Amino acid sequence: MYPQTFVQKILSRSAKLKYAPIGTTIDIIPDRILSHDNTAAIAKIFSQLGIKEVYNPKKLVITLDHAAPPPTPFHARNHDEVRKFVLEQNISHFFEIGRGICHQVISEEALILPGEVILGADSHTTHFGWLGAFGSGIGRTEVAALWATDQIWMRVPESILIQLEGKLNNHVSTKDLCLYLIGKIRSDGGLYSSIEFAGKCITDMSIDSRMVIPNMMAEAGAKNAYLPPDNIVFEWLANKLDNKIDAQELKNRAIYPDEDAKYSKIIKIDLSNIDPQISLPHSVDNTHPVSNAKGQKVHQVFIGTCTNGRLEDISIAAKLLKNKNIAKHTRLLIIPASSEILNSAIKLGYISTLLEAGATLGTPGCGPCMGNHMGIPSAGETCLSTGNRNFRGRMGEPDANIYLAGPAVAAATALTGVITDPREIA
Amino acid sequence: MMTTYGRIWKYGDDINTDIIFPGKYTYTLQKIEDIVKHALEDLDPTFAKKVQPGDIIVAGKNFGNGSSREQAVTCIKESGIIAVIATSFARIWYRNAINNGLPAIICPEAVSYAKHGSIGKVELKNQTILIDDKSYNFPKFSSTALNIMEHGSLIKYVQYNLRNKI
């Protein structure tokens, strides 16, 4: 047998093949199919197929997160149509407004496990590489077809190996690593590829920090991304599953690449060389050390999204802002990625700290990340976001400027009102 | 196969899904005639008003990067564009294009030659692009992609397969 990459192994398993050469097109059967507020639009396409029932309703996971709770009658009607579909098709994995963003909720609910395949009508489905799954975004039409047939064609992609070593410095997070990497390989540097990370230092990373990495690899054009899962991942998931599947069993299901697998490119990164990063408008790969943008006036700081709306991000902000006030004429919007995160942040006192500093709190969900929900910047304003995209118009206003950064830069900037290197805050 | 020439709308690299179809409209606009009015709104506000059936979009690398929103394909297709020619495509946009029967053609040579306002046409069967006085060949589509486009869309292809229980 030839040595194989992670993606070769997982896609061939999903296609019930012993081996799948890179570049071949195979039919795979996913374990999970994700959709969100776009479920109503997919249901309309599905109804054109002339069949009444979804092939396997247990595989579907549906969350209402993109505009939740609904800000307009249009969004309310859309949610209503999603709920009708959920009832008609008997979908058990349905999560209402306020539960949180699909990728975070599915992780917390342990609805996808190591060695499994999830496809979703959302470009950040790459997220699930954090636990050693294959996650990839597809279109609405494809999801409708998947609901009907349970299978889909996939090309077995080339893999890029990112070899990590060293330790991240203080005030530097995995978001900085991602921005640094995307700045290096550009927004098409991972096009059609499986971006597979390796390195013993991954074991030092918290679960929250890990989730950022495959999530952000969508911005390099990746088909999927992968972190090798370890005992920390297996125990975290086993705990979520109340040990119905234990850590050992999860470990048995995990897939690892062969040592001599073939990669199209190998990139080595020493984490200790990375400074806090920032992406300037209007593209994610327009990344610089934060010092290059120092002093830029910011009207709104947004800490949230499936990329950086987790407990660790909120705790970083709370620690930097404890007993302090955010700058005058600057807003700080905090939107936790899930209700579980919000609840923990309340119990740990982070939310009080942030509210006392002058923050505004939003319902767990996607918020203004893609211009659908509350927190839209005005024309001429600058927003610094911990999200994943800063394309022109992304947050709803084409004449606003969006900067992307990690939670420490975001909190330091909220404190001063201008883009600030968190290492310079005492 | 188109027998007449269309005009070329030429754009640069990394034309992302937010400037093709802004996210703020994804859950408010349902009708295709409304969706079409906002095609390329934040990139080129003249496009939706002036595009004619048979026109072609030509762009640089990584066309369609960003969201999985399918309106970023349908707003272009329903505006009358018969093909998008680019140096490379983002993968979800590419799949969405094929699945909606909009040819997404990779041909860097044609991209460097074409200018905004050039005239061009695409002949899928013999994999040829004509731009002004020049002709270019592009690589074959995969058999799956060709099958889907020959049926008109993924939905029609799946309907056919379900009917024939393939």
Describe the structure.
- The complex is a heterodimer of chains A (426) and B (166).
- Helix content of chain A is 31%, strand content 17%.
- Chain A contains 14 helices and 18 strands.
- In chain A, the strands form five sheets. A five-stranded parallel β-sheet of chain A has the order 4-3-2-5-6, sandwiched between helices. Chain A has a five-stranded parallel β-sheet with strand order 16-15-14-17-18. Chain A has a four-stranded parallel β-sheet with strand order 10-9-8-11, with helices on one face.
- The longest helix of chain A has 16 residues, at 73-88.
- Chain A starts with 5 loop residues before the first helix and ends in a 10-residue tail after the last helix.
- In chain B, 33% of the residues lie in helices and 17% in strands.
- In chain B, helix 4 (71-77) links the parallel strand 2 and strand 3 (83-86).
- In chain B, helix 7 (143-151) crosses helix 8 (154-163).
- The longest helix of chain B is centred in the last third of the chain and has 10 residues, at 154-163.
- Chain B starts with 5 loop residues before the first strand and ends with a helix.
- Chains A and B meet through helix 3 and helix 5 of A and helix 1, helix 5 and helix 8 of B.
What are its keywords?
heterodimer; A: 426 residues; alpha/beta; Aconitase, domain 3; 2 domains; five-stranded parallel sheet; 14 helices; globular; B: 166 residues; Aconitase, domain 4; seven-stranded mixed sheet; 8 helices
